[in-house]
Amino acid sequence: MSNSFAELGDALTERVSELKRLTLLRLEDGAKDLFTKDLSGLEASVRALEAHVATLKSCIQTELSAMPKVEALIEASRIQSEHLSAIASNLPQRLPSRAPAGAGPGLAAGSSVAGAIGPGRGLCGGGGQAAGAGPGGGAEEAARRKREAPRWYVTREEFDGLQAYMRGRLQADKLNAAVEELAGHAAANQRLVAGAKAGGGKVAPADRKRATELYHSVATKDGIKGHFWFLESDLREGVAIKPDKTGKSMLTILRHLGRIQEVRCNIDGASTTVYVLQEGSCR
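^ thats the sequence. predicted structure below, dont judge the formating
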């Protein structure tokens, strides 16, 4: 009997303890509403976070799908950069401008390389025949070049091979700019002579006297006839080369390199120097 009462007491004690624990979990109605609101807010935050995560996943997937295009663009840019570097390393020191038929000295429309440049070769314009041209195309090219003033530019190798006292403070690009301008002077004189030869109808009234003098006193002389040339007085109108100490140094270098040749002529009884442009050999 004592054992049964002891077991019954233990059971009652355990039950009371359990009821105490359940009592601690008891909540009032007001507290329940607060907890319900907190749980609803927490659920809304979790759902919003899930939506943000889904958006991030979508953006990441879009970026990953674009990666092959980006890699292809980077590779194309690298190849183009290599091509441009190769082109830049093979460009001449100065890209000449080709003046149109009606433009005056120093004026140019567009920019084009007048010939090929290589070690020991001049950059030529208005002289020689284009390489690789066919029989018909070669004749047309030769006829076109014959109507243009030759532009035999100075290469870097030729300029570096000059004596230091001849170069002075000159630069190759400035020297080639002078070649371009001198060709413009020669082309202008050629137009005046052609106009005087045709009767002077196409020459401006202010230039007819000068055109006639050039035609009779210069253009028909030996060593000048059939060539492009300019006068020493033409340098007064220049920009890249003028009749000063620097301009004379440029003329000396160009004469030394075979770009020009001097011929003495008399115009109205006064002796003057005529510079004949030489045509380079583009091989």
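Residues 2-89 form one domain.
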